[in-house]
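Quick one:
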Amino acid sequence: MGAKMGATELWDIVAFGIRNKMTLKSALQDVKQTTLAAVSGLLGKLAYVASLRRAHGRYEHWGMQAVHGAESSERALKTVHAEIVAGVLRMPLARLEDDLHESSRESAVAAQAYVDGMREGFDDLLPGDRKDSPEASHLNSVLIALSSLEKHRGRATRSTS
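Output:
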C-alpha cells in the first residue's frame, strides 16, 4: 500500500471510489515545508512562530494540532523556533537588513515599525525560558542594530563589500 520515500510515505487512499495519492509528513516536515514556506523572510518566520506562543508558553496552531496532535505539534514548533533563532543569530547583519525589508514588505508594514514590533514582543521571540541567556542578549543586540540602521537609513552609504 505505501512505498517508502525518504522520511515521508506515499499512500494510495481510496475514498468515495476515488484513488488519491497522499504524502504523510512528520509534524516537523509539515511546519517547515508547508506552514513556514508561506512566510517570507527569516525574521518573518521568527515573528510568525513567536506569535503562536501563548501566555502559558505553549504553541497553538489549530491546523497542526488537528493533523499531528498537540504534543507532536508542540515539539515541532519548539524545534523550528530554536532553528530560526539560530539562523537569525548566524546571519550577517547586511543580509538581516535585506531580510527585514522582505519580511516587512510581505506584512505591509514599514521596516522600522516591523523591527520595533519585534522588539516590543521580545519575550516571545526566544523559545523556552531563555530570557537571560547569551542568545537573548545577542538577539536583542541584532534587533537594536537593525532598528538603528532603519532610523538612519539614507544618511549612511551601505558598504558593497
